[in-house]
Design brief:
Largest sheet: 12 strands, antiparallel, barrel
Strand content: over 45%
Distance between the termini: 5 Å
Number of helices: 2
Number of strands: 16
Length: 333
C-alpha cells in the first residue's frame, strides 16, 4: 500500500464577539469559508519527494556514494498503480472577519475537519499526454468560536457533504487541465443538521508550470465554475447562482531540501446571474511555508488576506485575514 501523509500544526488565539446570525448569514459564512478551503487546496505546495523512488540506484564503482552521495531514480508523477484514495484533515485557523462584513467585524478561531474517500484509478495515456480520473465523497465540518469559553459562535457551525467526480490531464509535464463536477449540501447545526443550502458545481481549469531550476517554479492558472444553487428560506431560492472566474499566480521556492516557500496571488470575478447585474471582485494574497519530512509527512503554516468589492449596494465590501494550519492524513492504495 502506498501512503502519503501531510501533517500541519498551528495554534492561534482570537478575541470572540457575541453575534446571532440571521439565516442568510449561514450562506455568507459557508461561502466565505468554502473559498478559504478551496484556496488551501488550490495553492498547496507540491511535495518535492513525490515521484522520487525510495530505492537507490546500484553504484557503478566502489566508493561512488562517498563521492556524489546516494543516487535515486526519478519517476514520472502519478504512475503509482493505486485505486483507492482517502484522507482525514483537521485544520485550525483564525479569521478576522468571519461574517464578511464591512463594519462590526467578528473575529474568531475556526476548526475545519474534512474526511474524504473515493476511487482514483491509475492514470492512462490520453491525446499525447496523461489523464487521471477520480470520484468519491468528501465531508467537512466547520466549528466556530473554539478559542473562547463565552459567547461562542457554535450556532453557525455547519457541515458540507460533497459528492465529486473529475479528471485531470497532464501534457508535456508542464501543462495541466481539469474538468470536474460537485454536488454540495450545507447542513446547519442550529437546525439539527438540516439542509439549508445546496449547489451543483461544474468546474474546469488549466495551469502552466514553469520550472526554472531545481529550486524555483512558477505557475499561472485559470479556473472556472458555475454554481447552480438553492437556498432556504424563499424567496431567494436561486439568488446565489453565479459564474466564478479565477486567475492565479503562485511561486514555489525550495529554501533547502524539503522546505517550500510559496507566495501567491488570486484574482476572482463572480457574476451573479439571478441578481441583476451584480459583479463581485476578490483580490487575495497569501503565503504558505511547508516542510516535507519525506513522501509521507509534512508541516505547513499559512496566512492570507482577502478583499471583496461589489457593484451591488446591498452587498457589503469587506477585508479579512486568515491564518492557521492543520493536520492531514492521506492514503492511496
Amino acid at each position: 500500500m502506498n501512503a502519503r501523509v501531510s501533517i500541519l500544526a498551528f495554534f492561534a488565539g482570537a478575541q470572540l464577539h457575541a453575534a446571532r446570525p440571521l439565516p442568510e448569514t449561514f450562506v455568507d459564512a459557508a461561502q466565505g469559508q468554502d473559498r478559504f478551503a478551496r484556496e488551501r487546496q488550490f495553492f498547496a505546495p507540491q511535495n518535492p519527494y513525490r515521484g522520487v523512488s525510495t530505492e537507490s540506484v546500484p553504484t557503478l564503482y566502489p566508493g561512488e556514494s562517498a563521492d556524489v552521495g546516494p543516487q535515486y531514480l526519478l519517476l514520472r508523477p502519478h504512475r503509482r498503480r493505486t485505486w483507492i484514495e482517502g484522507g482525514i484533515d483537521a485544520q485550525y485557523f483564525y479569521s478576522s472577519n468571519v461574517f464578511l462584513t464591512e463594519r462590526d467585524k467578528v473575529d474568531t478561531g475556526v476548526l475545519l475537519t474534512t474526511v474524504t474517500a473515493g476511487l482514483a484509478p491509475p492514470p492512462f495515456e490520453f491525446a499525447g499526454g496523461e489523464a487521471a480520473l477520480h470520484i468519491g465523497y468528501r465531508h467537512a465540518r466547520y466549528n466556530y468560536g473554539l478559542d473562547s469559553s463565552a459567547n461562542q459562535l457554535n450556532n453557525i457551525d455547519f457541515d458540507v457533504g460533497t459528492i465529486y467526480a473529475g479528471s485531470r490531464f497532464t501534457f508535456h509535464d508542464d501543462w495541466h487541465g481539469w474538468l470536474g463536477l460537485e454536488y454540495n449540501r450545507y447542513l446547519s447545526s442550529e437546525r439539527d443538521w438540516s439542509e439549508f443550502y445546496t449547489e451543483l458545481l461544474p468546474q474546469w481549469g488549466v495551469e502552466r508550470v514553469l520550472h526554472f531550476n531545481d529550486k524555483n517554479a512558477f505557475s499561472l492558472s485559470y479556473y472556472g465554475g458555475y454554481h447552480f444553487t438553492h437556498s432556504d428560506p424563499d424567496p431567494t431560492t436561486h439568488g446565489n447562482d453565479r459564474l466564478d472566474t479565477i486567475l492565479s499566480l503562485a511561486y514555489n521556492y525550495t529554501v533547502v531540501t524539503g522546505v517550500i516557500l510559496q507566495p501567491y496571488y488570486r484574482f476572482q470575478h463572480s457574476y451573479y446571474s439571478q441578481s441583476g447585474s451584480r459583479h463581485d471582485v476578490f483580490n487575495v494574497v497569501g503565503l504558505t511555508v511547508a516542510y516535507f519530512f519525506n513522501e509521507w509527512a509534512s508541516v505547513r503554516l499559512f496566512t492570507s488576506f482577502e478583499a471583496r468589492e461589489s457593484n451591488d449596494p446591498r452587498v457589503q465590501d469587506y477585508r479579512k485575514w486568515d491564518s492557521g494550519g492543520g493536520v492531514t492524513l492521506a492514503v492511496r492504495f
